[in-house]
Amino acid sequence: MKRTLLLLALFLAVPAGAQVLYEPESIHYQAPPVPKSITFAGETWRFDRPDLYERLDREFIQFTYAHTTSTLMLKRAQRIFSQVVPILKKNGIPEDLKYLMAIESNLDPKAVSTAGAGGLWQFMKGTGRDYGLEVNAEVDERFHLVKATEAACQYLKDAYEKYGDWMTVAASYNAGQNGISRRIEEQKQSHAMDLLLPDETSRYMFRILTAKYFFEHPELFGFHIDPGARYPYKAPSKQVGVNGPINSLADFAKENGTSFFLLREANPWLRSDHLTNKSGKTYVISIP
Question: Are 126 and 263 in the same domain?
Answer without folding.
Answer: no
